[in-house]
Amino acid sequence: MVFSGLIGLKDDLEDRLRPVRAQLFPRQLLLELQDDSLKGQVLRGSGPEAVSIDLPLPPLTCLDGQPLEKEPLGDLIGDLLVRDGLLDAVVLASLPERAAQWRVIDWPFEAIPDDPIAALRTIDPPLNLAVPLSEAMIDLRPLAGSTPRLLMAVASRKLVDDWIDVFNLAGVQLERLAPAQSCRLAAVTSLLEAAPVDELTVLIHPHPAGAQLLLMHRTEPVFDWPLPQDDEALVREVNRCVTFYRRRDPSIRRLRLLLSAPLPSQDSLQDALGVRAEILTPEPFGSLVLQGLAMAESVR
Q: Side-chain half-sphere of 78: how many Cα atoms within 13 Å?
């Protein structure tokens, strides 16, 4: 009886100390959301633990970044956090790749106003977006340069609200939802800050349905394009996009090829572009997106 009583007191003390421990030693869960999978790892201080969440999602759980099965998805995320003892963790998540679009905005006036998002909605420039700015969640980040320029990421307000519902159903504390593209950009920016002014960086992110191409001039994204799954078609499309951009900017004299993961068509791609590929290794992070999420957190 005394023994069982001591065990009960210990459990009660653990319950009482858990919120205090969470405040004194906060844990953050970096979570990469994709249409077909989840990947996550815990961030403690400035360093990540090993990836603890890495599993596929059933077909049509998410489609084009939109969560279709909110309740099962919320239950799954909640169960995973219970399994890993992370219900007290703060979640920093990236939206699926196709949930957001981005554009570079050349601000039409000399200075950027205090509330640039409201001003952008008022101006409502023709940006060929899938969602009107009046119905969108907007993230703006300044770009370096002599004239005011902004990197804008846009996602449907309904889509963002649906993901917030998913995390509410999971019973976890969601602190941030960031576009995957912005996270990946944050992870590679340090590699590109000292790039020669005549160099164009070709960044390719493979995924199950093909790949995503991002052309960058130093740290500025200048062209974003989906690539096909077929190896030969992918090489042709990359070559076509690079040729197109070089016509737009004749100052480009050299290329740099970055891959977020190896490609089956890597040798053919290197031959077509005349440059060796660099495979980006985000270790100890599970992906460039998770690395970018952590970097964004560290500069807050």
A: 14
What does the alpha-carbon distance between residue 35 and residue 292 come to, in Å, rounded to a whole number?
19
**Structural domain span for residue 233:** 193-289
Query: What's the rounded Cα separation, in Å, for the pair 165 and 159?
Result: 10
Q: Give me the count of residues in the chain.
A: 300
Question: Is 174 found in the same domain as 132?
Answer: no
Residue 36 burial (CB count, 10 A)? 16
> What domain count does the chain have?
3
134 in the same domain as 88: no
pLDDT in tens, 111-142: 888 899 999 999 899 999 999 999 999 998 88
* Helical spans, DSSP H, in 141-283: 157-170, 180-192, 231-248, 266-273
**Phi and psi, residue 261, nearest 5°:** -160, 155
Q: Please check whether residue 17 lies inside any domain of the structure.
A: no
Task: Tell me which residues of the chain have a pLDDT lower than 50.
Answer: 1-4, 6, 10, 13-14, 17-18, 20-22, 298-300
Q: How many CB atoms lie within 10 A of CB 85?
A: 11
